[in-house]
From TrEMBL:
Gene designation per UniProt: Caprin1
Example GO molecular function: RNA binding
Stored InterPro entries: Caprin, Caprin-1_dimer
Name used for this protein in its record: CAPR1 protein
Pfam family of the protein (one): Caprin-1_dimer
Coiled-coil features, chain-numbered ranges: none
């Protein structure tokens, strides 16, 4: 019986470690995604300043569409 309890505790510990590892991987992926979004936002903010070429109307329209992807509307009901 003691062996069974020890075995079950080991399984429980392994499950917790796996869940923690998966959570860390999700957090790392989210941080990478957020870093990319912030870099793109920075680039978009700098367009048209500091000697950067002025864009055509068509290019601005494409950037507006891209902006909607980078700055999605947030559902305030979600966390």
């Amino acid at each position: 019986k003691q062996l069974k309890i020890s075995y079950l505790k080991q399984i429980q510990k392994t499950i917790k470690k796996t869940a923690r590892r998966e959570q860390l991987m999700r957090e790392e992926a989210e941080q990478k995604r957020l870093k990319t979004v912030l870099e793109l936002q920075f680039i978009l903010d700098k367009l048209g300043t500091s000697g950067v070429p002025v864009l055509t109307e068509e290019e601005l329209t494409m950037l507006d569409e891209f902006y909607k992807l980078v700055y999605p509307e947030r559902d305030m009901n979600m966390r």
